[in-house]
Amino acid sequence: MPRTAENTNWAATVDSIVSRAPRSAPQRDPLRAQVRLLALLSSAAPLNVLLGALASYVETWTEGLHCTVLLVDPTGRLLRPGAAPSLPEAYTHAIDPVPIGIGEGSCGTAAARREMVVVEDVEQSDLWTKYAPIALSYGLRACWSVPIVDDAGALLGTLALYYRERRAPSTPETDLIQFASSLAAFVIQRHTALRESEARFRGAFEFAAIGMALVALDGRWMRVNRALCGIVGYTAEELLATTFQAITHPDDLEADMEYMRQMLDGSRSHYDMEKRYFHKGGHIVWILLSVSLVRDDTGQPMYFVSQIQDITARKHAESQLVDSEFRYRTIANLVPGFVFEGVVRDGHPQPTWVSSGFERVYGCNLDRFIELGAKSFYDEATRARILAGASTIAQGSDLNIDVSLWSTDGVQRWLRVVARGVHTGPGADVDRVLGVAEDITQQKRLEWAVGEATYQEQQRLGKQIHDGLGQELMEVALLARGLAASARKGHRPNADELERLSLLASRTISTCHDIAQGLSPLSEAHGGLVQALHDMVDRQHNSSGPAVRFDALEDAPLRLQWPSTEHVFRIAQEGLTNALKHAGAQSIKVTLDVQPDTVRLKISDDGVGLSPYAAESAGLGLKIMRYRAAMIDAHLSIGPGENGGTLLVCECRQPA
């Protein structure tokens, strides 16, 4: 760090350095003066000290010589004393200031003319009329002056040589005074450049946006700027009275000191590290520290230069991010399934990140899933539903669908997917998709088991009602009819009551048959699924209701087995019931299209129609139909018909 000191201190310091130089004369020692000047030039001594050393050096050239340097003041019109080491101080004060102009002595005239002015006898010179009495009173007789100009030709001042006798310069002396002027110009320009550089350094140092410091080799703060004081809460005076070790967190100190040792031994040129300071208020301040080492011309370490950036806010944000990430991943891993993130490109969903539960569901990681492709996990109908869901998200709506899949180990699983598109800004396209895929496989299997148990119970009840209660009621009906016939023959009055009892028993038998048919429609339909559907439609004929028609397109044998036929029939039953209740239709058509590979059930009406989003309704009937379709891996769609009204389509694959 550049030093500052009083002029006398600088001179005394340099004198102590050069005092060991050998003397060539008792009073004037050119070598010693030259060494002193060079030593001062390599320092940050003030300009008047430098010029004084220069003048002293010049005075060693000739016996009886007095050298003085005058400098141009800020107005550019006056010359002010810069150095006059051997002239009487009273004389210097007497002529201060010297105007720049012709007739203002040797110096004022030389500055005005921009050329060397030689006055052999001031008493006889018109240029000295104003100053001759003063000069003569101090025994000064001759004065030679030369202007000092910088590299750009600007006037800096004058350098003058005084003698106490009349004297004109010889040619070598003329060359020497010109050399002295050039040397003075060099000294002044170098000092000005150093001062400007110091000013720039001081400004850059003091007003830097980050903390800056010069640190001694033992850790003492040598110089600190206001930004650093603001970071740690201490004043500059407080920091300069301590060391960086005193405010460094103990857990960070050893690493910091090791880096410094490596820089001192030359194995490291600089280092950067994140560390903690103790703020004056007692709290921790995180900083990013960048340190370099300044060495002198001989390579010896002088001091460290440190740059300090306050990164407390960044560290706090990083800590919050880590905590948030931990909470997010913990919650994501607790989901019975997985959490995912993805994008929608060209209408196709593409997952980009999944939580660990993904592998439990699909049996592979995300990279392997992408490599295998969706066809390895979903059937065509499911892929179509997923594409439709991606379109829903792209249009700004949330997605909520159940998806069936086959994992890599051949196990069928089900997911309930809830997803939402995230936009980069108002009106922007969907940037990414966030969602949760809940594994509902156990729920589906439980529902299947419940459904199967219910179905078996229905079969049992149907059989008991049809074969048990029905037969017993049949016996009651026959007994009542026989008693009624006997009563009529005997003209007994209870014959009509017995006849009514027989009719009531017959109607009850019919009701039991209907109940049994409702519980097990296929068992009483000798024609299988086709006949069961035909009978179901026939039972709906009502002169006051819509016309209901059934068509069977049997282009191939129906190979569906129980329980698939049961689920298709129940879907048809629920769909027809909904159409009769809610469509407000004039006509309803039920179609069973049997193809070699597929069986397609269609129910269409010409009623009021159904919203495209009503298929996602939470109504129980729709849920039951979707549940039954999922049980047989069928694709169920409900939406507007081509010519109005509502269209229900259930399509499943035929077994091989």
Q: What's a concise summary of this model?
A:
By secondary structure, this protein is of the alpha+beta class.
Describe the structure.
It is a single chain. By secondary structure, this protein is of the alpha+beta class. The chain folds into 5 domains: 7-201, Beta-Lactamase (2-Layer Sandwich), CATH 3.30.450.40; 207-315, PAS domain (Beta-Lactamase), CATH 3.30.450.20; 337-436, Beta-Lactamase (2-Layer Sandwich); 440-520; 526-656, 2-Layer Sandwich (Heat Shock Protein 90). The protein has 20 helices and 21 strands. The strands form 4 sheets. A 6-stranded antiparallel sheet has the order 3-2-1-6-5-4, sandwiched between helices. The chain has a 5-stranded antiparallel sheet with strand order 8-7-11-10-9, with helices on both faces. Strands 13-12-16-15-14 form a 5-stranded antiparallel sheet. β17, α19 and β18 (587-594) form a beta-alpha-beta unit. α2 runs antiparallel to α3 (47-59). It is rod-shaped, with a radius of gyration of 55 Å. Mean pLDDT is 83; it is low at 1-27.
